[in-house]
Design brief:
5 strands; Rossmann fold; about 10% strand; five-stranded parallel beta sheet; binds zinc ion; alpha/beta
Length: about 325
């Protein structure tokens, strides 16, 4: 059975209560971050929906249905994930799903479809899904998890029930990480690097931690935009841009004296940024946010040009002071 972290326990209870009272909607959009345990929650709800003999509010793990689900061969369950180089969910996957929901359940229980990262559906796939959402078949549930709701088509959103999953407090995250056997210092540092997402933090490897701080050094050490541009181009842009944003935000918070100590940004970086006027830092922040948005939307980008621009803006910002 999947373990649900305690910050998601109420969300879980609400969903299964709705199910027990026949009030659970047919299409559910679970909005939350994988790094906060959203997948574990969705998986537990699916296990409950498929189990034929739940015990005390959880799937029994022993009935035939639970066993088929655990072995990945339940005929009434389908999981759809983004595929291919572009990591999209295409219409073929949705057609497969349409087929499953139109059939009678083979195990005489519920039929459940789980769409992981529903925001990755392309337009055709989303349109094909509308029919399924509009014409629910009995005992059928469609669970879609999304990291970013704004990227889900409004037509899909309006036909589904939004379930906004709770996020952990830092104390909850630290307690949970301690249960996984990590000491407090590492836990704080890893959480900080992983934007306070505990499931990400426990997966963070030593190499990834080193790479995180190496990126800082590269940004501080490169004095010419061509060399820095080359470096930026060699990196995974969304990861790098999120980190750059983290430096800027930490520096801006520090000025207001509102930020707690951050272990994800070195004092060298903070010292460097502290002398840059806030207005310039805000302009740079806006620019990075817009770049990040373009990268995430996979707009038609010239990555090399973009990398040079990012480098030039950075060098320029530091040079003006
Ligand atoms: Zn069971």
């Amino acid at each position: 059975m999947t373990q649900i972290p305690n910050w998601l326990a109420d969300d879980y209870q609400n969903l299964i209560q709705q199910y027990d009272q026949n009030k659970l909607p047919h299409g559910l959009l679970m909005v939350g971050h994988e790094g906060n345990g959203s997948r574990e929650l969705t998986t537990s709800v699916i296990q409950y929906l498929m189990c034929t003999a739940p015990v005390a509010g959880f799937a029994c793990s022993e009935c035939k249905s639970c066993q088929l689900l655990a072995s990945g061969s339940h005929p009434d369950f389908l999981k759809v994930i983004p595929e291919g180089k572009s990591l999209t969910i295409k219409v073929d996957a949705i057609r497969q799903l349409t087929h499953l929901v139109s059939e009678t359940a083979q195990q005489a229980g519920n039929k459940v479809v789980y769409i992981q990262n529903a925001e990755k559906m392309n337009l055709n796939a989303a349109n094909a899904l509308l029919k399924v959402l509009e014409e629910p078949t009995p005992n059928t549930f469609l669970l879609m998890d999304v990291d970013e709701l704004s990227r889900v088509l409004p037509t899909v959103r309006s036909r589904s029930r939004l379930v906004r999953l709770s996020t952990p407090s830092q104390a909850q995250s630290l307690a949970w990480i301690a249960e996984q056997g990590l000491d407090e210092d590492s836990a704080l540092r890893k959480l900080s690097i992983c934007f306070d997402q505990p499931y990400e933090a426990i997966k963070l490897t030593t190499e990834a931690e080193q790479a995180w701080f190496e990126r800082e050094k590269s940004f501080l050490n490169h004095q010419h935009f061509t060399a820095l541009g080359k470096y930026v181009f060699s990196q995974e842009l969304p990861v790098l841009l999120e980190q750059v944003l983290c430096w800027v935000d930490t520096s801006l918070r520090q000025r207001q004296d509102a930020g707690k100590p951050q272990q994800s940004v070195s004092s060298a970086m903070l010292a460097e940024l502290s002398v840059i006027p806030a207005v310039l830092l805000f302009q740079f922040r806006d620019y990075i946010v817009s770049m990040l948005k373009s990268v995430k939307n996979q707009a038609n980008l010239n990555a090399q040009l973009m990398s040079e621009q990012i480098a030039a803006r950075w060098i320029n910002m530091r040079g003006i002071i």
